[in-house]
Amino acid sequence: MSKIVENVPVIGQYPVLPTGCEATALTMVLCWAGVDVEKETVADALVKEPNPFEQDGKLLGGNPYRAFIGDPYDKESYGTFHGPIAETMERFLPGRALDVTGLSFEELLAEIDRGRPVVVWATIELKEPRKTTLWEDIDGSGTMIQWQSPEHCMTLVGYTDEAVVINDPHTGNQEHYPRDLFRLRWEQLGRQAVTVK
Question: Which terminus of the chain is less hemmed in, N or C, by CB atoms within 10 Å?
Answer without folding.
Answer: N
